[in-house]
Design goal:
171 residues, Rossmann fold, 8 strands
């Protein structure tokens, strides 16, 4: 994406919490059908907050991280860098991720999810937000946004003046 502010979608802490709880609710209905979730793997950093909310809501205590960098300078996706892989305990004892939730904040192009899916092919992938290119890589999501939308997560924002959509400044 060349200009992240072209279609900005700022998300407040309240909204992100509500959306993460909505994702937990969707996942709870799946666990009723498929059994208990044994573990959550959070894709860091964006997946940490929704993973914590979902873990609380679903009563999951086994939480692991996989650390992958995909965005550089908060403006474009670059090469994926796996900084930390998933623990051997989850990799070796879950039949390729069966009964494991993989949580992230967003699937954009799906590149990160594809990388993690190689590690846990049988896991259930869930994100709070999904863009069209990334949708096929996840099993469950809450909100779809257009491919050219840049989501500003609450941890990326400060309180400051916002220019109106019209571009006209009051005063």
């Amino acid at each position: 994406m060349s200009d992240p502010s072209s279609k900005a979608y700022p998300v407040s802490w309240d909204q992100f919490h509500r959306d993460s709880k909505a994702l937990a609710w969707k996942l709870s209905t799946l666990s009723e059908k498929n059994g208990e979730w044994k573990a959550i793997v959070s894709i860091t950093r964006g997946g940490l907050v929704p993973a914590a909310i979902i873990a609380r809501e679903l009563g999951v205590r086994n939480i692991e991280t996989v650390c992958i960098a995909s965005y550089h300078e908060y403006k474009d996706q670059g090469n994926l860098v796996v900084i930390k892989t998933i623990s051997d305990d989850i990799l070796n004892n879950t039949e390729g991720g069966k009964s494991v939730l993989v949580i992230d904040d967003l699937t954009d192009t799906g590149a990160t999810a594809k990388e993690v899916r190689k590690m846990l092919p049988n896991a259930h992938f869930a994100t709070v937000y999904a863009k069209p290119s990334g949708k096929p890589t996840v099993n469950t999501y809450v909100t779809e946004v257009s491919q050219d939308t840049w989501i500003y997560f609450p941890w990326d924002l400060d309180l400051s003046y916002s220019t109106p959509i019209s571009g006209k400044k009051d005063g």
